[in-house]
Amino acid sequence: MLKSKFTSLLMQWHKKSNRREMPWKGEKDPYKIWLSEIILQQTRVEQGWNYYERFIKKYPTIQQLAKAKDEEVFKLWEGLGYYNRCKNLLITARFISKELNGKFPNNYDKIILLKGIGPYTAAAISSFAFNLPYAVVDGNVFRVLSRVFGIETAIDSNEGKKEFTKLADEVLDKKNAGEYNQAIMDFGATICKPVSPSCSSCVLQKNCNAFKEGKVNLLPFKEKVLQKKHRWFYYFLMQHDNKILVHKRNQKDIWENLFEFYLFESSEQIKWNNQLVQEWLNEQFAIKSAEVVSVSAILAQQLTHQKITGQFIKVNFKKVPTSLQHYKWLVIKKLNGLAFPKFINQFLEKEIV
DNA sequence: AACGCGGGGCA
DNA sequence: TGCCCAGCGTT
What we know:
Blueprint: H1 3-17, H2 30-39, H3 45-58, H4 62-67, H5 70-77, H6 84-99, H7 108-111, H8 119-130, H9 139-148, H10 158-171, H11 177-190, H12 209-213, E1 229-240, E2 243-248, E3 259-260, E4 262-266, H13 274-285, E5 290-295, E6 299-302, E7 306-317, E8 328-331, H14 342-350
Parallel strand pairs: 1-7
Antiparallel strand pairs: 1-2, 1-4, 2-3, 2-8, 5-7, 6-7
The chain binds a DNA duplex (11 and 11 nucleotides) through helix 2, helix 3, helix 6, helix 8 and helix 9.
């Protein structure tokens, strides 16, 4: 199909048939567009929707976000995943607030320099807020273009990224970049879906290479295979005097910047029981004044790249061992002010600590 | 250029 | 269970 025909058919579809409403659509405030785009990175619209509304309500301007405390913002981000987005959100809000006098950069080259903003987000902000001619390339765009034009280059290869970026730029409606970008993403999300796309009602069907060749379900093509790790996390809820031991994760690992309890990680399963816990405590902390309160059922969580299995073990110290004195002891009532990973929250929700 | 990073929804 | 989602930073 001619590239110009693709563009005009897509724009016609958008004007006539697309009724996908979202809180940030038609928004012109670059702060709100930026916030929505960060939230939506690798995240479904439905999943990010409420987070967006809570952020805008609590922080209506970038200056207010910039002034917020880290822990408060992470608490609001809790459960959304990819927590580096939240860290970079704060870095960029504070940078713009302090160094740019609160004014969001208004051109692509400056926007893409901001932390947490890559080619996709820079194109999205440039086109939606400033109607600049930059084409977004996200999962939807890879899928639509690979199918319509029958491109089999792997989208997770460097070559593929270049090729699709070039094509995306060629089919962009440069005078209506914002509208076009909305159109192709909505089209990918509602018609040209990953699984069971609506080819029978697709306005591009007659011109779609993948449909003609029967390759719809083979495109887009990926070459990398996901490797999954299995880890065992045993969390000890060390309690003493209405306080509990918490720790902010600070390694380059999952859940960085989130809180957790005292973690004992193992590469294989451990069959804990009261006696084993007691022995382990004696060995680890060389004290006998710890009482094993309870050992939870085995819980599991499936992440994209890892499977976490583990248990929660409550321990009551009559006296805090010296080796734990430099850890952070938090009043239990304040637990709900901290952001925890889902794995921990699924335990806390049904358990009164 | 390759790899690691969450959580949810769907077939 | 496996795949994908309005991707990005690090090494």
